[in-house]
């Protein structure tokens, strides 16, 4: 089925805009791919170093140039629940490769930090920059040029985007992303949110809060709410970089292991040594990028991807803009209700039909490009399935996704959407550009006009809240939180506080050049304001008491001050030196100096 005219129009303008950068990119990866297996040109000393630690069979195979060799890029560490399951994956992959006559080696490890651990802490100021560090770390591993394809083991917020940037930088290599899956369901997300808000109000103690958090985050796997980590998995599948059905299968299960082995065998079959050569740089084209954006909207996904998708696309020579993302939101129905956009978690989403059901619904309505190239090689319709184990418990088999949702309150059809649009849109006005996610905001809360209250740190807002200074209508302007200022930390510490004030009947909202991420919730938040305050953006000229109008329906963000007065004001210049030292921040000064705007992906490349 052909894509909807409106989807085609956005795709065409991305293609036209990107031609000056996409065409040289394609020329580079085609030239690199034409060189063939690099191992055959390595010196004997080079090659001996490359397989010195391997066993006899692998050494024998690697000494020639006809055995495909996989490079494993892993984000394993055993502190973080989402990445701990990867401890077992390299041996699974090595053995699966040997079984089909190939080899596999861990090419490099990349850092994996958890925003859940660093939330509201100093370490969060390294979080966004870790994406580009991950891309560079993966590049170091792949630079040995020993590999015919790569498999990428990553799950969470900045890890998958960083790996995707690396995969596209090495776009001549086939790439398959292998997730670890979500943890099993624990304390319901709405109950966790309720306890957090009670704690913010001083109605429960730390012991009760820690007990609730521990029941929510209780075992191996990804957090079960639909934040950036699970949005990542959705994106990799709908963009054709997973094997079909791989996204949301729990860790340490027979099906998860079978999917990992299958991904290994598939990666070996699509190298330049065979007849199905499928380089990653051809999988991720303009159509795949549009499919990713549509999937983000249809599931109510993370606002972080208004930056990450822009940066991923740029690594493939594709110029994606916030206007493109916003326009695609207008034509994409919201088909999933997963917390914070609903009460369900990703396990409920999977049980209701998961990615297979979602992809089929979108394909049948012309909202996705079906005729794309994927790592699976069969167009996107092949992803409209559920993954199951065959009777022998070993081989993965496929069957059609159910025609009916297992739970229409979690996953619905295109003719009965939860909303006619994706709820993620761009705001424009005299403060520049910003992003808002309204899918979890009640319609009556989406327009706020109130006086500004200025903060230069999220902790300042907490102090004001505790002092009882915020029991009124206001718009919190939390500025100097952009990438140039302090690395653009997430500001989730604000969510319970502003939620309390909203529940008391006040009109409240947030305007910030910082981030709120995939857990953006019920309070309207204009985030990623660009230009940021550190760059002298208009947000730096707002004063306490200025009236601001945030309209999430029409897509406008205005400070109600005449242009001449606003232009004549001197931008605020707070002392930011405290953001420059401690917990490694010294090492990232070059990143803060070099980083681009949020609208351009907040990238140092």
UniProtKB/TrEMBL annotation:
GO biological process, one term: Entner-Doudoroff pathway through 6-phosphogluconate
GO cellular component terms given for this protein: cytosol
Catalytic function, reaction form: 6-phospho-D-gluconate = 2-dehydro-3-deoxy-6-phospho-D-gluconate + H2O
Textual note on the cofactor: Binds 1 [4Fe-4S] cluster.
Molecular function (Gene Ontology), one example: 4 iron, 4 sulfur cluster binding
Residues in Dihydroxy-acid/6-phosphogluconate dehydratase C-terminal domain copies: 410-602
Superkingdom: Bacteria
Domain Dihydroxy-acid/6-phosphogluconate dehydratase N-terminal positions: 68-381
Known EC number: 4.2.1.12
Pathway it works in: Carbohydrate metabolism; Entner-Doudoroff pathway
Keywords: 4Fe-4S, Carbohydrate metabolism, Gluconate utilization, Iron, Iron-sulfur, Lyase, Metal-binding
Needed co-factor(s): [4Fe-4S] cluster
Keyword RNA-binding found: no
Record InterPro entries: 6-phosphgluc_deHydtase, Dihydro-acid_dehy_C, DiOHA_6PGluconate_deHydtase_CS, ILV_EDD_C, ILV_EDD_N, IlvD/EDD_N
Binding site for [4Fe-4S] cluster: 156, 223
Family designation: Belongs to the IlvD/Edd family.
Described purpose of this protein according to its UniProt entry: Catalyzes the dehydration of 6-phospho-D-gluconate to 2-dehydro-3-deoxy-6-phospho-D-gluconate.
NCBIfam families, sorted: edd
Record's protein name: Phosphogluconate dehydratase
Organism of this sequence: Jiella flava
